[in-house]
Write a structure and sequence with these properties.
Length: 373
């Protein structure tokens, strides 16, 4: 296994970043697509494996149409919410309806304009599957949770022995609440499994296909452990807060509890992200021969995120380039690829078979997707 490397530097990227920011401001945002392209090209070009690097081939002009459409819709939405708030739900529903199409189109575009060692990636997933995963499953789960609530609101009062005794109502409400939370957690785990499989099993490197087979219960287990990691310290802090009561030190205790909540939430989020990343990587293959591994640890991820936030906060945003470079370093140095047997020959083979796949597809919607994470 060999780790990817990031060869860029914060001070080097700062020059690109500050020019992008200034030009975006001067052009009232119109330069943003070109700024995005410059940023991505820098990070792609400085991401290397086995002395080979990635490349990003999109242009600002290709991203401009999607950017302008998104900007116009955003302006219209804000005007409508001020003038006729009753139509805001219509716009929200319209966005939800087209979201699976945007995700699908973005996956096709972003994969096709990305390459490694002169071999392009591609995405060949079906649009109907995107609608099933990103719209069908969420709507089904919402429907089931609502139905559980309706049935409970009718059934629990009818089973209550005495109208004056609220005990049964309280117990029934708690049971229904817990059941709904379990159903919601299962839904999140299922959608995570389905979305990761959809993105990876339909992704190609040249003619080589990525493949993965995941389990919902594993995602559910990771989420459950992450939630428990967050809840236990919060419960302890809450009990301590209640025990001390309201007194002269209440303000200090509240501040401590507030920052404690941030730290605990950060650790829990880092745990979930790192464990899911490791699980997906270890179960993913390219052409059934190239394996992957993630060694990203929760504490390392949480530390970089936390210190990045402090850097950005205390420099009023000027440390953003160094924060992005630190995160790129962390993610890449903990991403391993099996290059032990025939890797160079495999790349050479794909260059011969699939080098012509990366033709331009014109303007496209571009949404950052969590494909490789």
């Amino acid at each position: 296994m060999e780790a990817l490397r990031f060869t860029g530097a914060g001070n080097e990227y700062f020059k690109i970043w500050i020019v992008n920011v200034l030009l975006t401001i001067i052009t009232l945002g119109i330069y943003y697509p070109w700024a995005k392209v410059r940023n991505r090209r820098y990070f792609y070009a400085n991401s290397t494996l086995n002395d080979r690097n990635f490349e990003y081939h999109a242009t600002g002009k290709q991203l401009l149409l999607g950017f302008l459409i998104g900007l116009v819709l955003f302006v219209i939405y804000n005007i409508v919410t001020q003038v006729a708030p009753q139509f805001a739900l219509f716009f929200m529903g319209f966005f939800i309806l087209i979201l699976p199409w945007i995700i699908w189109r973005s996956l096709i575009f972003n994969m096709k304009v990305s390459s490694f060692s002169n071999v392009h990636f591609s995405f060949r997933g079906a649009l109907k599957t995107s609608y099933l995963i990103f719209l069908g499953y969420p709507l089904l789960i919402i429907f089931l949770i609502v139905m559980v609530g309706i049935i409970a609101s009718v059934a629990i009062p009818s089973l209550q022995s005495s109208p004056s005794d609220p005990t049964f109502l309280i117990i029934g409400g708690i049971i229904i609440g817990v059941f709904s939370m379990i159903l919601y957690a299962f839904a999140i785990a299922l959608i995570q499994k389905k979305s990761k499989e959809y993105m990876l099993n339909n992704s190609f490197y040249g003619q080589g296909q990525f493949s993965t087979e995941l389990e919902t219960k594993k995602f559910l287990s990771i989420y459950a452990k992450g939630i428990m990691l967050a809840l236990l310290p919060l419960v302890v802090m809450g009990l301590g807060f209640v025990g001390m009561g309201v007194g002269p030190g209440a303000e200090i205790l509240f501040i401590v509890a507030y920052f404690g909540f941030i730290i605990v939430s950060l650790l829990a989020g880092a745990y979930i992200m790192s464990r899911i990343r490791a699980y997906v990587y270890e179960n993913t293959l390219l052409d059934d021969r190239v394996a992957f591994e993630s060694t990203l640890g929760a504490r390392a991820l949480a530390w970089v995120i936390f210190t990045n936030l402090l850097m950005i906060l205390f420099t009023l945003g000027l440390a953003m380039p160094w924060a992005k470079v630190r995160m790129a370093n962390l993610m890449l140095e903990n991403t391993l690829v099996d290059t032990s047997v025939g890797f160079d020959e495999y790349i050479t083979q794909e260059q011969a078979r699939g080098g012509a796949i990366g033709e331009q597809i014109g303007e496209a919607f571009d949404v950052d997707m969590d494909v490789g994470f």
